[in-house]
Amino acid sequence: MAKAHVYQRDHVNTDEIIPARYLNTDDTAELAKHCMEDLDAEFVKKCGAGDVIVCGDDFGCGSSREHAVWAIQGARVGAVIAHSFARIFYRNCINCGFYPIELAGAIDKINDGDELDIDYEAGTIDNKSQGKTIQFTPLPDFALEIIHDGGLLEHIKKK
Amino acid sequence: MPMTITEKILARAAGKTSIRAGDLINAKIDMIMCHDVTTPPAITMLKEHGIDNVFDPEKIVVTPDHFQPAKDIKSAELHKRLDQWAKEKKIRYYYKLGRAGVCHALLPEQGHIRPGEVIVGGDSHTCTYGAFGAFSTGIGSTDLAAAIATGILWFKVPASMKFVLTGSLPKGVYSKDVILEVIRRIGTDGALYRAMEFTGPALKEMSMEARMTITNMAIEAGGKNGIIGFDETTKAYLNGRLKGKTEYTVFESDPDARYVHEDTVDCSKLEPIVAFPHLPSGGRPISQCAGKVMDQAYIGSCTNGRIEDLRIAAEILKDTEVRIRTIVVPATPEIWKQALDEGLAEIFYEAGCVVSAPTCGACLGGFMGILAEGERCISTTNRNFVGRMGHPRSEVYLASPAIAAASAIEGKLADPRKYL
Questions:
Q1: Residue B132 and residue B26 share a domain
Q2: Is residue B265 part of a domain?
């Protein structure tokens, strides 16, 4: 079961997700140690495998650094749910085979610590703690294909 | 069907006569910018996937800039990976230490940016090149790897927003103030997924350097690209400068093209602006914030590290002495040399500033001017996010080189107009 880590914030940026002082490496395990460090220094300790980050608008704004996605993947985060995503971060997620979930009002529908069960095919989030099922719009087919193939390069190779 | 300049460039790159916002297209890439943070991982990905192909070694420009000269062992390893790859793939335009510079200042200066082209780079501020009437956007490492290998990327055609810049800039107000005002109005996601097209008579009075400051910060409003149409100023800048192919195609928006948002900025009414932490949208007129104590001034970056910026700073710093740590970073070796030849370097030295080698340096909190806990920096850079220049509890205030220089003299936010 995935636990929600809710940040009542818009514009959580790439500098907060992975500060530039750690960009001298592209080693995922190393980056993962500092995931979300400048937003919540305790995040890596709190986050269990498959847990979910929940935020407001414009998540991932700022730099084009894919290191932000790698840090999140490396920290074993299962999904990021946000009201909206910054463009380059959103694209980087898909390219890395990581599903960004756009959900209006996410930070009002999900409380910190809620247990979630996400069905990506159906486009539903089962909020076990609140006993409610939340719908989200699944990614368009071409993006789903990339994610199913495990990322853009695998997708290109397959083609 | 009427189209915007962005739609026309993307249509050409997709081999179509007409496209509209929202269309998904595969576009041919004309130029790729590679630097030392996002390209080494792309190189590794390509190797790991057994992809050896480089689509065109003439259409890739490589320059280390973020952590150059190498700031530590790990960044030296990134540079080594970049260097070995660039040599092995015989990348035609590879700028090594001594010729390398901050990418978005270097590529236009060295004649790699042509109007009408589709340009991508592994850096969010790649939108800078839109000042030349090109479609230019930042991408991550995986897209970069795909572009390097295939020369093609998919795009969703962005809807366009139009910003008409009217009036003349008053003394002490610059293009940096214009873009900070635009971002203040629409917010850091006000242009999310959209093209930001700048037009209007005020642009006619701006140099290419000043225009690049505007398109550079399109990403700070969430924009996919920033774009300014071609004119005589563009032509004069490009004349004799272009490397490789010297011909290019000029596109312009149709008069009845569709925009999802239109706004006018009367430049004559602007005053110098400072964007307060921790978002670039936090702009305040200097008259409302002068006096806030600073610990450091930073004049440099792909936003404001060009020769014109250094001239503005030097004019204010001449025959004075700074009260706080002041770091001047010419963005490229040519700018560095020009600063020396024009006597600007001496002015900075006499005023007590340090002049560094070209690097992105402290702009992104790499090195060469990192902030301690609680410190504040007035900076000509583009982002003031939490921890951007150092400690998570340090603060960055964004402004023009004039405000940075005036503030360096007083040790607090200062109105540059009294020094001009």
A1: yes
A2: no
Domains of chain A: 2-158 (3.20.19.10)
A73/B contact by beta carbon, under 8 A? no
Task: Give the structural domain span for B379.
Answer: 274-419
pLDDT, mean of residues B29-40? 98
Total number of domains constituting chain B: 2
For residue B70, what are the contacts with CB-CB under 8 A and spacing of at least 6? Answer: B76, B79
Same domain assignment for residues B297 and B238: no
Could you report the per-residue pLDDT of A30-61, keeping only the tens digit for each? 999 999 999 999 999 999 999 999 999 999 99
B24 and B156 belong to one structural domain: yes
Residue B188 lies in a domain: yes
With CB atoms and an 8 Å threshold, state whether B385 touches A156: no
The model's confidence at residue B261, banded by pLDDT at 50, 70 and 90, is: very high
User: Distance between CA B272 and CA B166 in Å, rounded?
Assistant: 17
Contact residues, chain B, for A60 at CB < 8 Å: none
Which of residues 82 through 121 in chain B touch A, CB cutoff 8 A? none
Q: Is the pLDDT of residue A121 over 90?
A: no
**Is residue B213 assigned to a domain?**
yes
Q: Which pLDDT belongs to residue A1?
A: 79
pLDDT tens digits, residue range B168-179? 999 999 999 999
Spatial CB neighbours of B179, under 8 Å, sequence gap ≥ 6? B213, B214, B216, B217, B220
CA angle in degrees (0–180, nearest 5) for B220-B224-B225: 90
Mean pLDDT of B223-236: 98
Greatest alpha-carbon span in chain A: 44
| CATH number of the domain where residue B218 is located | 3.30.499.10
Look at residue B11 and tell me if it is in a domain. yes
Residue A68 parent element (H or E): helix A67-74
pLDDT tier for residue A158 given thresholds of 50, 70 and 90: confident
**Could A24 and B72 be called an inter-chain contact, meaning their C-beta atoms sit closer than 8 Å?**
yes
Interface test mutation site (partner B, options A12, A16, A23, A34, max chain B beta carbons within 10 A): A23
* Burial of A64 from C-beta contacts in 10 A (0-12 / 13-18 / 19+): buried
Q: Is B365 on the interface with A (CB under 8 A)?
A: yes
The C-alpha of A129 sits at a distance from chain B's nearest C-alpha, in angstroms, of: 32
pLDDT in tens, B294-349: 999 999 999 999 999 999 999 999 999 999 999 999 999 999 999 999 999 999 99
Query: What interface predicted TM-score (ipTM) does this complex get?
Result: 0.96
CA distance A22 to chain B (A): 9
Contacts with A, B 177-196, CB within 8 Å: 188-189, 192-193
Residues of A in contact with B392 (CB under 8 A): 19, 37-38
Contact A58 B74 (CB under 8 A): no
